[in-house]
Amino acid sequence: MGDHKCSSKRQRRCPAVRPGRADNDSVTADIAGISGAPGAGSVQPTRRRLVLLAAGSVLLIDVGTKALAVGTLQPGRTVPLLGDWLVCELTRNSGAALSMAADRTVMLSLVVFSVAAAIAWIGVHVRSPWWAVGLGTILGGAAGNLVDRLFRAPGPLRGHVVDFLAVGPMPVFNVADLAVLAGVVWLIALSLSGFPFNGAARNSEPDAGG
């Protein structure tokens, strides 16, 4: 009888701990931060870092490979990488990607700058990590060619872009061109697959309770 009373006192003295609303809110915030759902406080800074990481990586690779091409390749000579299918050939491009609009260098430079600024602004508001990577890839490619436009001969906004890769009969291109193309294809694939820009879950349905 005495043991039973002692046990009852210990139970009253140490009530069971139940999760409170603060704990539930914390768990909800953590889940939102992982999934990219709207409302997570730390989602946007993380996505911005993804945009910057992707853009910075592409920019560094593009600038590095262009410097290597200029330092090692001779204009007019081709260096086979995969037979005749993939070769290195140093050229200077005054036009857009794939040598288009070669007589509109200044206008193209301003267009590239505007596109890069627009992508950077969109990247500030992106919530989906997949969209962040795609936008960053495009931004890095645009920035890579813009560096050539600004700092290479014959002068600012008129600089010729260094191209050095050729696949079969296609025009010569560079890493920046490839990144822009890959980023655009990636974003189109995300849109067609149901991955929204705001990071909401795919095929989400309203709760049964309304």
UniProtKB/TrEMBL annotation:
Its main location: membrane. One of its GO terms (molecular function) is aspartic-type endopeptidase activity. It catalyses: Release of signal peptides from bacterial membrane prolipoproteins. Hydrolyzes -Xaa-Yaa-Zaa-|-(S,diacylglyceryl)Cys-, in which Xaa is hydrophobic (preferably Leu), and Yaa (Ala or Ser) and Zaa (Gly or Ala) have small, neutral side chains. The active site is at 163, 177. GO terms for cellular component: plasma membrane. InterPro entries: Peptidase_A8. The keyword Nucleotide-binding does not apply. It is found in: Cell membrane. Pathway: Protein modification; lipoprotein biosynthesis (signal peptide cleavage). GO terms for biological process: proteolysis. It is a multi-pass membrane protein. It comes from the Bacteria. The keyword Protease applies. The chain crosses the membrane at residues 106-124, 130-151, 172-195. Keywords: Aspartyl protease, Cell membrane, Hydrolase, Membrane, Protease, Transmembrane, Transmembrane helix. Its EC number is 3.4.23.36. Residues 1-22 are annotated as: Disordered. Belongs to the peptidase A8 family. PANTHER family: LIPOPROTEIN SIGNAL PEPTIDASE. This protein specifically catalyzes the removal of signal peptides from prolipoproteins. This is Lipoprotein signal peptidase. It comes from Mycolicibacterium boenickei.
